[in-house]
Structure formats: C-alpha cells, structure tokens
Amino acid sequence: MRPQDHPAERWQQIAENNTLLQAAASLDPTPSGVARLRGTYSAAEIQIALDVIAARRSAQGRLEQAEALIADSAGTQQATPAALSAWKARVLSQRCPGAPLLDAGCGIGADTRHLASVMDVRGCDALEARCWMAARYSGAPVTQKQITCIDDLDAACVHLDPARRDESGRRIRDPRQWSPNAALIQSIWATERPACIMLGPGIDLDVLAPPAGVQVAFCSIGHSLIDAAALSGTFAQGLPTRRAVRVLEGVECSGLPERPPSGPPPKEGLFLHVPDPAIERAQLLHLEAAQHGLHEPAPGLGLLLGTQAASSPWLTPWLIEGITPPRTQAMQAWLKAHDAGSVTVRTRGGAASDVDTLAKTLSGRGQTHWTVFILRLGRKKTALMASKAA
Q1: What is the pLDDT of residue 350?
Q2: Global pTM?
Q3: Per-residue pLDDT reduced to its tens digit, 93-127
Q4: How crowded is residue 311: how many other Cβ atoms within 10 Å of its Cβ?
Q5: What element of type H or E holds 361?
Q6: With DSSP H G I counted as helix, E B as strand and the rest as coil, what are the percentages for the chain, rounded to 5?
Q7: In angstroms, how far apart are the furthest CA atoms of the chain?
Q8: What residues have CB less than 8 Å from 48, skipping those under 6 apart?
Q9: Which CATH superfamily is domain 79-255 in?
C-alpha cells in the first residue's frame, strides 16, 4: 500500500481509533481473519490499520516509541534508525547551533524528530500523508512541498534525504534519477550551504563527484553499513573528505581516501583482518594498516594481513590455520582432518557463489566450527581455513 492512496485525514482517523488498531494487532492476517473486521470497518480502514501494525513491528528496535507510531510500513522501513538520527542531530547542532534547518524529504519524520530536539527545524515532504505522519511523530511543523530546485530549500541549513526508490519500491542506484537528483545536489555543494545529504550505503561517489569541501561519512550499525551522509558548508568546514562512523559505539575516524599498502600473500599463522564496512567504504583502511603494521594481500581485496591480531574497533582478526585450493574435495579433506562441525563460508570479489550451499556441503560431524575464506588473490583463488582470534 502507498501512503498517497489515502488522504491524511483517513490516517488521522485511524490514529484515533484504538479499538481498530488493537483488533488489527491481534488479528490473524489471513483472508478469514480480515473478513471478521469487515462487518464493522471499511476496506480502507482495515487496510490502513493493518499497515500501521506492520509499520510498528518493523520499527521495533529501530525507532523510538514504535508502539505508538502511525505510519505506513514502506515509509517505516526506509526511515533512518534512531541511533543514526541522533548522531546526525548531534553533529549538525554542534556545527550550526541555533541555525534554522529544513528537513527536506522528511518521510515519516524519523530524522525530523531528533533534529527538532536540538535545532530550529521544520520539515517538508512531497506526500500529504507523510507530512501528517512526520508532524505527529516529530512535533515539528511539516508542510507539503516537492523539492525541484535550490530555491525550494528556503532555510539557512538543510538536511536532505532524496527519494531513492521508484513507485514500485525498487531502489534507484543512479543519483541522476533520484528526486531531487544529482544536479540539484551538486548545486547545493556549489553554494557551500550547510547541508547534510543522505546518499545511501551503496553510493557510487564517482557519479556524484563531491568537491573537496564535502565530507562523506559512511555509517555502520552492528557491522552493517547503514547509510552515507555528505556534509557540506559549515557542517564540513575544516574536516577531511572521508569519515567512518560506528554509530552505536561512538567510534569515528577520518582522513583522506587512500589504498592500504600491498604485501605478501596469506600463509598459516598469520592473521586476516576483516574491517567494519564503514571504514572500508570510506577508503580509510590505510590508517589501520599504518597503525598496526598490516597490509593488503591483493590490491582492492579490502582485507588486511599481519603477524599479530590487531586490537581495534574497526577490525576483526582471524587466525589462518590452513590453506587449500578452493576445490570442494580439498576443503572437505582439510576440514574433516581438523574435526570440522559447522562451517561458515565467506568470500570476496565473486571468488565463490552460493556460499550457503557450499557451507552445508563442507560441514561435518565434528565439534569445531571453522570459517572458510575463499578469496581471489590476483588471478589465483585460494581457501583460507580460519578461526576467530581470541
């Protein structure tokens, strides 16, 4: 269901109907279960109520006051996690204390809520229903507006989250097809306005080509890359062009993007270090390599190798205990000889496919869990048998 399928007044009516929401929450979501409500409520009311309950369940553990949320499930799934919203609010308010800020493309108001707690914020969104949802959730004023040109951004500071999905919900990878699109984003950067523009975790920065005065911060939660924020103007003044943030831990690093040094291939007894995705996407692995005496065993691999297990919030070290060709028979033989029970397979650069099926094939009846890294080192593929370093 799309939020624009129903007017804001209808969503507000559902918000005030606790009896319907309680019934929807306890409903068996089958045709016969839904049919029980049809004698009392209209099809539209039932549809909205069920979507609100789905949104609340999706928001659990991600958004504040999920149990009281009134929003559509699609908007909730796309909403910024509360921890990341709080990080942005803290960073922006420290850089521009007291400045008015427009939260453009505010969606259901997840970011608006946190920004409004520390700044003079108002929001806007292209959809009427989302404007009502955002105002209710954030407590900030929200108006309906489609951002089509830079003049629509009528505030000293801007937080902008472009629409990066089409009407069917599919993700749009090319920023030239976003709304607002790459051209408007680049015009914001050209004016050096204080702005925080959300780019998505998979952004190809070569397409957007941020200028030197823009810092792109890649943010992770629980070792999963969540989003990338481009800070400009006063929000980025004097900061390096790349930043990595582990949001929950409050750990950050920043610098200029570089490749880590290359070195010899893996061998038994060395430690393979898997980085948090935020520091890898920020191209700041060279900082960890320099600090801990590590190198990349193949250019662009994104893993670091060393003689010692590095103690770092950015790296997870694995002890290499065996090396085999990546043939199933060879890997099975090594694992069987080393008491293999459950096996996890990890890969990089398309060196292996269908890793879940392969992991089941390699698993044995032993007591020891092994992790197998199947990697492409130049033209050669290899399998590393590893255990997590203590």
Answers
A1: 86
A2: 0.94
A3: 999 998 999 999 999 999 999 999 999 999 999 99
A4: 9
A5: helix 355-362
A6: 35, 25, 40
A7: 72
A8: 1, 6, 10, 11, 14
A9: Vaccinia Virus protein VP39 (3.40.50.150)
